[in-house]
Amino acid sequence: MTDFARLLAQALVPWFAANARDLEWRRSRDPYAIWVSEIMLQQTRVDTVRAYYGDFLRRFPTVGALATADEDQVLAAWSGLGYYRRARLLHAGARWVARELGGALPTAAADLRAIPGVGRYTAGAIASIAFDRPEPLVDGNIARVLTRLLAITDIKRQGADAPDHWRVVAEILAAGPPRILAQALMELGATVCTPLAPRCLLCPARQHCGAHARGLVAELPAPRRRPASEEHQLWAVAIIAGDHLLLERRPPGGLLAGLWCLPLVPKTGENPSGPQLLRDALDLDLAEFVLTPTKKAVRHVFTHRIWTLSPCRLDLPRRPALGPARERRWIPLGERPDGGVPRVTEKLLSALGLAVPAAARRSAASAPPAEERQQQGEQPAARGSLA
DNA sequence: TACACGTGGTC
DNA sequence: TGACCAAGTGT
After folding, report:
1. Which CATH number fits the domain that encloses residue A167?
2. A138 beta carbon < 7 A from strand C?
3. Fewer beta carbons within 10 angstroms: which end of chain A, N or C?
4. CA–C1' distance A158–B4 (Å)?
5. Which of these, A79, A140, A77, lies nearest to A346 by C-alpha position?
6. pLDDT tens-digit readout, A273-291
7. Using the CB atom, is residue A45 less than 7 Å from strand C?
8. What is the pLDDT of residue A355?
9. Nearest-CA residue to the C1' of C10?
């Protein structure tokens, strides 16, 4: 045991007792509840997860409840949270744990790793937080904290995959209560040792911090570089017949896989949004229609892609026959499909002035601006008769 | 190893 | 605005 690990543990335990945020998942010792929280928190801010966590656990209170649910139900509860594959893997993980282990999570990180969606970090988090085992975990917070405390200037040794970090965390968790120390390390990174403007004066580990001693806190860790986003221009077509809206399920792989979206048609620039294009792109038997574009585009930014969406409304006198190429459904206006609905779908419906039932959740303060965006008095850009 | 994978907050 | 980032995992 190094002095560093022992001193840090001694500083963190009382600091966490006095400063830990009151988060819903910290009130539970149920390993399943902690598992769910860890999956939701992956790459996702605490405030965002707060708006989903309680509802999700009430909907799926046990491994068994989640295991017996339909995937679409799980995705519906996840709608708006992002990284939807997490929901699928969590669901698959629950089914695996129910089938192979009778619903009880293993306690060792090495065994937890066998669960779908549980990687190295999450296995350590469940083992340490739920089972109080001294098994290491390194997330973005902990990597940043250790990079600063140990004044690591080598970029290759700063990330959450750096072997040094895992070894040091193992030593720290061996020097005190693992359940407390694991959360304290992350809490320190989240509330004090923040990426920008860290609050070193409030830091319980300031005396042990190499970056602070050398004036390197602002330089460490080095910012990561990201590849440029690809931009896509698309028509987003709200096809309405009577009081029903046509939604289509995204393909099973790739972006927003399996979620319900408006039909999207790539903009070619050459083609106006004419009848032929629509019929081909939408695979619909369009006889008569009225197409109304909105003036304002909707911009949706993903991690690695940007969609610039031109919403338009296609009104049909009756529901046309649907081709078999894609899974599509007529949804009563104002209702949600039984399945996952990404935020971009809500943005588009809102921009089109179509009522969107509250998917959830988000901060209660933000009122949906659906009505105010309604476009009034626009002239149809196209009228068609395709006999 | 590097990339795909959502969304929202902050500067 | 654009860049960066937030309790990562799977391929």
Report:
1. 1.10.340.30
2. no
3. C
4. 22
5. A79
6. 566 666 666 777 676 667 7
7. yes
8. 66
9. A117
